[in-house]
Specification:
Elements (H helix, E strand, L loop, with lengths): L17 E5 L3 H13 L3 E5 L5 H8 L3 E4 L8 H10 L7 E6 L4 H9 L4 E4 L4 H15 L3 E2 L2 E4 L2 E4 L4 E4 L2 E3 L3 H11 L6 E2 H8 L9 H14 L9 E4 L3 E4 L5
Parallel strand pairs: 1-2, 1-3, 3-4, 4-5
Antiparallel strand pairs: 6-7, 7-8, 8-9, 9-10, 11-13, 12-13
Helix pairs in contact: 1-5, 6-8
């Protein structure tokens, strides 16, 4: 369902990212879409989660803006489905909701949300957050090299450089860093990281992730005790943070 005619059927302006706004309050949805469209984005509005996945598989949105309290299936469950869909792995997710408790925020991030914004919100701040999240999606990737601030991760040669200097990492350290960097701002539990990075290591415990993170911080962080990149989310796990430019 569309709010205005800003999104064309053939999406002729391919340089304009398409955003799915899933919000049951029509007035709030209009406000969101208006400010996003004024800022150069295409938008498509959904008052519920009912047809979001089917439409997304066809249109490949760059980002989903999800309310949590939706009629029928809620935003958390929709987020879970998006993250499990192989065709939507590159899409970003921002929660925009009146549910402001720390428990809800942690739940949203742990499910795969890239950011969590509380209502009421400042429209300009919302647009700025959308742009920031999308920037992480479009980080420079040349010949298999991903650049995040002073860190360069070369997937082909499995090497890491910090400020141009080659840093020695073990295979497991590299796999952990590379995996986290592919999902910037997303929070992972230790178990999720263990299953994703070390599925074959049957005798490795979840606490081994803490050891690898500690070693990586010593190698890549300007100040390992106050990390810039590998952030701890208390009570949950870890996330990779892209420094602001």
């Amino acid at each position: 369902m569309q709010i205005t005619a800003t999104e064309t059927a053939n999406r002729s302006s391919l340089e304009m990212p398409l955003l799915f706004v899933v919000e049951d309050d029509a007035d709030i949805a209009r406000l969101i879409c208006h400010h996003l469209q004024e800022s150069g984005f295409l938008t498509r509005w959904f008052p519920s989660a009912a047809s979001v996945i089917a439409q997304a598989e066809t249109l490949s949105p760059a980002l989903f803006l999800l309310d949590v309290m939706l009629p029928g299936e809620d935003g958390f469950e929709l987020c879970r489905k998006i993250r499990k869909n192989n065709n939507l792995q590159g899409s970003r997710i921002i929660f925009l909701t009146a549910r402001t408790s720390e428990r809800d925020r942690v739940a949203g991030l742990e499910l795969g949300g890239d950011a969590y914004i509380s209502k009421p919100f400042n429209p300009r701040e919302l647009v700025a957050r959308v742009r920031a999240v999308l920037r992480t999606r479009a980080k420079q990737e040349v010949a298999g090299v991903s650049i995040f601030g002073r860190i360069e991760i070369d997937l082909l040669s499995m090497t890491v450089k910090v400020a141009g200097e080659l840093i020695a990492t073990t295979i497991r350290e590299f796999r952990l860093l590379e995996y986290l960097s592919r999902h910037p701002s997303r929070v992972f539990t230790r178990k999720q990281l263990l299953d994703a990075v070390l599925p074959e290591a049957s005798f490795v415990t979840e606490r081994s992730i803490d050891v690898y993170v500690r070693r990586l911080r010593i190698k890549i962080e300007p100040d390992p005790d106050n990390p810039t990149y590998l952030k701890t989310v208390r009570g949950v796990g870890y996330r990779f943070e892209v420094p602001r430019e």
